[in-house]
Amino acid sequence: YPTWKRTLTRRAREAQMKRFCKAQAIQRRLEEIEVTFRELEQQGIKLEKLLRDEDGTAADQKTQWMNQLLYLVQKKNSLMSEESDLMIAVQELKLEEQQWQLDQKLRCYMNREESLKTPEDRTAEQEILVQLLEVVNKRNVLIHIQEEKRLSEL
């Protein structure tokens, strides 16, 4: 078993572990965002009740509550934006994993002697290549979406 094959296998495992760790971190952050959403929702409900129920309250107090409510809305919008970015990252990780798997299959076919390949092997190789191109195009679309989002936020 040549050294370069062991090195490739080790690097592939390392890349796969890196994707797995990144996916776990994203999942944890999404759960944190969900909890924060609920907390913000509860705070918003309390502030709305205070604003609606307290007719005899001083104008300064109402202004303070209104500012707090606007801050909550702003915070919720920023969390929604972050959640959207994380969902795109999840899709990108899935596509990256899919690309890696297709690449491995394609390498198996390409490492075979051309004279030993059956017509089915050639067809399967072409199908894998088409699937690989589709995955690359999907990743490209995600990159464009991220870039458009970044530019619109500026």
Helical content, roughly? Answer: over 70%
Number of strands: 0
Query: What structural class do the secondary elements suggest?
Result: mainly alpha
Number of helices: 3
Oligomer: single chain
| Biggest pleated sheet | none
C-alpha geometry:
elongated
Number of domains: 1
Low-confidence regions: none
Question: What Rg is obtained from the alpha carbons, in whole angstroms?
Answer: 25 Å
CA distance, first residue to last residue: 52 Å
The ordered H/E elements are HHH
**DSSP strand content:** under 5%
Chain-averaged pLDDT: 91
Describe what this molecule looks like in 3D:
With 154 residues, the chain is mainly alpha-helical. The protein has one domain (3-153). It has three helices and no strands. It has helices spanning 3-53, 59-110, 119-153. Helix 1 runs antiparallel to helix 2 (59-110). It is elongated, with a radius of gyration of 25 Å.
List the helices and strands and how they pair.
Elements: H1 3-53, H2 59-110, H3 119-153
Give a concise summary.
The chain has 154 residues and is mostly helical. The protein has helices at 3-53, 59-110, 119-153. It is found in: Membrane.
Brief descriptors of the model:
elongated, mainly alpha, single chain
